[in-house]
Design brief:
Order of helices and strands: EEEEHHHEHHHEEEEHHHEEEEE
Radius of gyration: 20 Å
Number of helices: 9
Structural class: alpha+beta
CATH architecture of the largest domain: Alpha-Beta Complex
CATH topology of the largest domain: Nucleoside Triphosphate Pyrophosphohydrolase
Number of strands: 14
Shape: globular
Number of domains: 2
Helix content: 10-25%
CATH class of the largest domain: Alpha Beta
Largest sheet: 8 strands, mixed
Oligomer: single chain
Distance between the termini: 36 Å
Length: 381
């Protein structure tokens, strides 16, 4: 863990997408050959509703995830992942992004902080553990599949599988133990002879919480994405999480616009990105290829305006060159010049729009900036 951080606590989040239909030949069966969902998508994304008692964004719908625990960096993982120790970053693909431009959460030398587990590994373990705690979805690979997994990684065709045959009672028992003590995630993997499927998670983004927006706690959060063949059994923990929903990206945005639920700006932005891909197969292929490019560190900078607030993102013409720890820049007025914009405009908590005229770095997606729909369709939510 990175105790040197002055403003943020490290965290990891998982954007979990899952197909509507069962296919006999894996993710490729979820391509365009099947009829799309009524919203045009053939997959759903998992959102979890936080408790009203939560200290961070109460009642918000969020992707599964949470704070890094010291056990995520434990040397005990060396035994669990021993088959992959000699592979660079435990079999994870290398990133082309130069080390000096990598976000701090990925670039930090964890050996200097006393952990033999690289950040890319520990952050994925955190995302998988938190997803299991909050939703009951366990993404693991059987130890018996180690040889096949290593070969698939070498061939560049690893896919996400739930990878366990646990009955619901045993799954719930282990879930309760992990919620009680995160280090039990290591114990569970050892006793069940499974590996956390870190290879199915693809690096997607890095968002930092500005001060004073969602309470006193601020997070430096690594966002990963994972595509599943089918929707897994899902449960809320009845404590931090009071409800779960599987819905398409466009349905979620429509429900937000209809004030049926609330999502924070990072979720709004990322779901708007996903609207570029109605096909799960295309999303999976893009996420796999793009992850090798790296990502930017994004901290929204709040700009007061006469009628609304603007959150500037890196690349915007008003974004400060040195934004470390900053939360606001001076008052501004609307400009007729549309060049160099990368911002989230908030008229009120439910009226949000994106203004993006820059080219995204690291071969990433531009979000869909127009409304998700001209009408509010029937939704899962």
């Amino acid at each position: 863990m990175n105790a040197a951080l002055k403003h943020w606590k490290e965290a990891a989040t998982l954007i979990l997408a899952a197909g509507h239909r069962l296919g006999a030949d894996g993710l490729s069966s979820l391509g365009s050959r099947h009829p799309p969902h009524r919203s045009g998508f053939n997959y759903d994304v998992l959102l979890l509703k936080r408790s009203s008692k939560s200290g961070f964004m109460p009642n918000a719908y969020v992707f599964p995830g949470g704070m890094v625990d010291s056990s995520d960096f434990s040397s005990d993982w060396l035994d669990i992942l021993k088959y992959f120790i000699n592979a660079p970053s435990f079999g994870l693909r290398s990133v082309k992004q130069p080390a000096e431009s990598r976000p701090q959460i990925f670039a930090t030398d964890r050996l200097k902080l006393g952990s033999p587990i690289p950040g890319e590994v520990a952050l994925r373990i955190c995302a998988l553990r938190e997803t299991f705690e909050e939703s009951g979805v366990l993404l693991v690979v059987s130890r018996k599949e180690e040889t096949r997994l290593l070969k698939s990684l070498e061939d560049g065709c690893a896919q996400a599988l739930t990878g366990h045959d646990l009955c619901s009672e045993e799954l719930e028992k282990w879930r309760a133990l992990v919620i009680q003590n995160p280090s039990n995630f290591i114990r569970m993997c050892r006793e069940l002879e499974v590996l956390p499927n870190i290879w199915a998670l693809h690096e997607w983004a890095n968002w930092l919480t500005p001060a004073g927006r969602y309470g006193s706690t601020r997070f430096d959060t690594a966002f990963f994405i994972c595509c599943l063949q089918k929707i897994p059994a899902t449960l809320q923990d009845e404590k931090e999480i009071v409800r779960f929903q599987w819905s398409t990206p466009s349905e979620i945005l429509q429900s937000f616009q209809a004030q049926q639920l609330w999502i924070a700006p990072p979720q709004f932005y990322e779901l708007s990105r996903l609207c570029r891909f109605p096909s799960l197969n295309d999303l999976h292929s893009f996420a796999y290829r793009r992850a090798a490019e790296g990502c930017e560190q994004w901290m929204p900078i709040v700009v007061p305006n006469d009628e609304h607030h603007i959150s500037l993102l890196p690349g915007d013409k008003l974004y400060p060159h040195d934004s470390s720890g900053r939360t606001e820049v001076g008052h501004t007025t609307d400009s007729q010049d549309d060049a160099g914009l990368h911002r989230i405009v908030l008229l009120d908590p439910y009226t949000v729009s994106l203004q993006v005229t820059i080219k995204p770095k690291y071969n990433h997606l531009l979000p869909v900036v127009e409304p998700a729909s001209t009408h509010i369709s029937e939704s899962h939510l």
